[in-house]
Amino acid sequence: MGDGLLQTGMELRKLTAVFLLILSSFVAYGVNSSKSELEAMYDKAFTAFDEARYDDAIEGLDAIDVTQPNLAESLNLRGAVYMRQGKFDKAEVTLRKALSLEPKFWNASFNLAEIPFLKKDWSEARNRFTALMAGGEGEKLRPETSQLIEYKIFLTFVMQGKEGTADWILNKFEGAKDSPALYYANAAVAFQQGNEKEASDWIAAANKQFSVRLNQLYAESFYEIGWRKKPAGEARAALEITSTNEQAARLKTEAQAQFEKAARAFQQRDFEGALRSLDLAEKGVSNDAAMLNLRGEILMKQEKFDDAEAVFRKALAANPKFREAQYNLAQIPFRKGEYA
Question: Which of 14, 151, 177, 269 matches a 20 to 30 Å C-alpha distance to 277?
Answer without folding.
Answer: 14
